[in-house]
Amino acid sequence: MMMTRGTSRVARLTMGGRLFSAVEGAAAESEKFPAMGVRWRSSLTLGEKEQVNNKNSEDGGNKEVVASYWGIKGEEVEKEDGTPWKWNCFRPWETYQADLTIDLKKHHVPTTFLDKLAYWTVKSLRFPTDVFFQRRYGCRAMMLETVAAVPGMVGGMLLHCKSLRRFEHSGGWIKTLLDEAENERMHLMTFMEVSQPRWYERALVFTVQGVFFNAYFLAYLASPKLAHRVVGYSEEEAIHSYTEFLKELDKGTIENVPAPAIAIDYWRLPADSTLRDVVMVVRADEAHHRDVN
């Protein structure tokens, strides 16, 4: 019995030591990456990793930046021309060229009660959005993409669970919705390079995303058709917002800066592409999501 108590005490001490080391390590990481400006290691480009490694070498350190949340070094990938692939948040086989010929004016006329409920819900949410962001379209796009990436993930998750419960195939919809969520997330990763959110806008994301996630989750459980209609009408509003964004770029109100490198690789854009080209392909993506939903 004495041996059992001693062994138990040693185990507690060992676990406590590990916990302390983990907390201490997290504290050290938080000093390197302040909470309001976090960029995790898995999202760094190769160039940024080299800078970190060079800094560690100068400091006499031996630390290595690992491109994974799990501490496993990611596979090195190359482009078609043999140059190293810079991004860890997506891979070359996930890139594509957007279809700019898609109909931007298509509109699903609300006929049923659910259609009208979805339509007026989206319209009512547009007013406070217009008041808050006004004509700051770069920041508006970035902030709204934090919400736009939620429906595909929620829908894909619920269909995934339904497929498991019923022992049946999903007809390909799980992957479709998850791909939509990933595409919207890449919109966010792109606009992060163009516009930096203010502290109160970052705080707003926590509130809006928390409320919207749960509301959409319950709506999807009650009526998937209603949930998809909400997304479809939201995408129609997104097309309108990006069209206004383009007008401001054409008028010179917003500077037409060079396209972020992440956008050039993700949409396979020419090397001399500009912000206007990025907004064009993002708008085409939103039109595609509108049709799917």
TrEMBL record:
Q: Which reaction does it catalyse?
A: 2 a ubiquinol + O2 = 2 a ubiquinone + 2 H2O
Cofactor: how and how many bound = Binds 2 iron ions per subunit.
Note whether Transit peptide occurs among the keywords.
yes
Classify the protein's membrane topology as the record does: Multi-pass membrane protein
Using the UniProt record, give the first listed, main subcellular location: mitochondrion
Which is one Gene Ontology cellular component term of this protein?
Answer: mitochondrial inner membrane
Localization terms from the record: Mitochondrion inner membrane
Q: Which residues cross the membrane?
A: none
Q: Which UniProt keywords apply?
A: Electron transport, Iron, Membrane, Metal-binding, Mitochondrion, Mitochondrion inner membrane, Oxidoreductase, Respiratory chain, Transit peptide, Transmembrane, Transmembrane helix, Transport
- The yes or no answer to whether the keyword Transport is present is yes
Q: Which cofactor does it need?
A: Fe cation
Look up the EC number in the record and give it: 1.10.3.11
Q: Which Gene Ontology terms cover its molecular function? A: alternative oxidase activity; metal ion binding; superoxide-generating NADPH oxidase activity; ubiquinol:oxygen oxidoreductase activity
Question: A Pfam family this protein belongs to?
Answer: AOX
Alphabetical GO biological process terms: alternative respiration
Family listed:
Belongs to the alternative oxidase family.
Subunit relationships: Homodimer; disulfide-linked.
Q: Which PANTHER family match?
A: ALTERNATIVE OXIDASE
Please report the name of this protein according to its UniProt entry: Ubiquinol oxidase
UniProt organism field: Daucus carota (Wild carrot)
Q: Quote the gene name from the UniProt entry.
A: AOX1
